[in-house]
Amino acid sequence: MREFNTDETPVVRMVNITKHFPGVLANDQVSLTLHKGEVLALLGENGAGKSTLMNMLVGLYRPDSGEIYVKGQLADINSPQDSMTLGIGMIHQEFMLVGNMSVAENIILGMKDLPFVPPMTDIKAKITELSKRYGLQVYPDKIIQDLSVGEQQRVEILKLLYRGADILILDEPTAVLTPGESRDLNEILKKMLAEGKSAIFITHKMDEVMEFSHTVQVLRRGKCVSTCPTKSIKRVQDLANMMVGRDILFSLDRGPYKPGEIMVEAKDVVVLPVGGGKPVLDHVSFSIRGGEIFGIAGVAGNGQQPLTEAITGLLKVNGGSIFINGKDMTNKTPLQVIKNGVSHIPADRGRMGVVGDMSVGDNLSMKKYRTGELSSHSVIKRNWVRKFADHLIDVFTIKTPSQDTSVKFLSGGNIQKTILAREIDSCGGILIAVYPSRGLDVGATEAVRQNIIKQRDKGNAVLLVSEELEELLMVADKIAVMFEGRIMDIVNAASATTEELGMLMAGVERRDI
Length: 513
Fold this sequence. Notes:
Number of domains: 3
CATH superfamily of the largest domain: P-loop containing nucleotide triphosphate hydrolases
Helix content: 25-40%
Strand order of the largest sheet: 6-7-8-3-9-10
Strand content: 15-25%
CATH topology of the largest domain: Rossmann fold
Shape: globular
Oligomer: single chain
CATH class of the largest domain: Alpha Beta
Number of helices: 17
Mean pLDDT: 87
Structural class: alpha/beta
Largest sheet: 6 strands, mixed
Low-confidence stretches: none
Radius of gyration: 23 Å
CATH architecture of the largest domain: 3-Layer(aba) Sandwich
């Protein structure tokens, strides 16, 4: 990547920033410097204070103390509008988009310099030009809720580009992208840097840090513990150690593959979109055995999420059948599916995984309150709930001030841990895990993968949806690759390669590889 000039006045300087929340010191005297043309990778465990620090830079929070300078001038940033006026824009880990509005409407939403009736033809033309220029395939008239998570990510990037931001903050921008899309993002960053832009890049993917960034800054428990040039770091393992303070295993020991009886089976499953059109699932067939991890690979938006929602009763099946433990569960209710032993870690953790206004403890016990363990004659045993929640908080190292804290106040990674803890604990034989390590630091990712392998070694069937081919090759026994709602092929993970999987993800038939 292009080098930057450290002699110039920094475009951003945050000095001794401190921020408290109830029961939490999120940032403790943190300072940060960003130069023009620089990519700074901001690292840390879940809950280390990275997103909080950036939220103060974009005006979502106010620091309790400290100063922020933008392009050499002391800045008083009270709102995202103030930060955008200063040329600062942020892509959040949880997207800030209005689901029932179009791409174009979301991109211009809140812009004060537009007329009462915006010139939508010109706006759409500019969006199309930017999407072509940066290689971001987005259609301006599409409704946000009809887009895949990966497509929504592109809209967020375009929103910043359209508004002319030259200081970009990207919070886990590749968490929803395939390896190819991540490389595309790297090319986008290079184009931005060539135009004089700068970026702060929050990620848990060590390889991306080494490839994308000039400088690394590490936060731990709200404090800055290290800042150094990326080129001075020799091994990925050293980065991981800086983040979590211990060595991380980058490989997992697996027991022998001993598949049992078929526990999940899909036969020619068809799901049609509302209003008709091309099937989102097109005659999908496969089976998963006990003691097996069945991986699903594919670019976002190719049917992975509809497949898991069809199995769990969240989406109507228009054709074919789904069997769970030998029973026909086609179009059964989610509760019936749960009672038949299925746990589900959903793709959208904020909308489907937790109830934000409820406490951490209540979210953890959500799958248990019908059982005699936590309730009696429809009355919740609050003391048992508290013991149960404290146990899961400890086992899954969920960082929360207390189990009474509303789950919406946790970091994205700790919300994910809350869902993982609940679903793995309640698993009755079948675990459906959709992007389970998304947004988690390297230590937590290691723990998640170990827990998934434990489920397999207990004889449970696991359906693992991931866009990280490295994760699938490391954890899965079989991998099905989806493209445009179809299964292109099912391969043995032990003999598969990333190149082969990548070609299948692009829609190339196996005979042509």
